[in-house]
Amino acid sequence: MTGIAQTVQGYTTTSQGSLISASNDWFSLTSAARMAGSRPLDEALTMDALYRKTAYQAKDNSRMQQLGEAVKSTLVGGSSPTEQQIAEFASRYAASGGRVENFGRKMLEWSKDANISVANKIYMNLKSPLNVNMMKVMGGQELPDYSLVQAQHQQ
Fold first, then answer.
1. pLDDT of residue 131
2. Whether residue 86 sits in one domain with residue 132
3. Domain co-membership, 32 together with 98
4. pLDDT at residue 8, rounded to an integer
5. What is the predicted pLDDT for the residue at 81?
6. Parent domain of 126
7. Mind giving me the DSSP string for 5-32?
8. Domain count, the chain
9. Is the dihedral of CA 10, 14, 15, 18 positive or negative?
10. What torsion do the CA atoms of 104, 107, 108, 111 make, to the nearest 10 degrees?
11. What residues of the chain score a pLDDT lower than 50?
12. Residues 52, 98: one domain?
């Protein structure tokens, strides 16, 4: 059924609606094959490449997440990694599919994630006067985290 529908509409899409192939030739061998329930070779190759790319991206994302956890465990409490650790992190970052020119920005992001509690991030994002008053009325208060402890020691 889907093969007939795809032949009539003249194109094929993924389940998310992205175009895979467009064919407006009713009298071709690929249209007959599609109506019989099979896929043309070019479409099968395209889908294979798409699935392979998605699998590689998922693996890269998994390795990047593992690296982020390792970096954050090193940076927690405001501690600084050694030069050797930074070189190792940069090497693993590049091997995980990261662009070397973005490594510094990613390190800052991981450092911030390692030292600021999630509750305080939400609290900081809700700094409008209305939100601040509502949190005070409801008994909300900032939780201690490493960024606040360091700021208090500097004063």
1. 74
2. no
3. no
4. 47
5. 85
6. 117-155
7. HHHHHTEEE-TTS-EEEE---TTSHHHH
8. 3
9. negative
10. -160
11. 8
12. yes
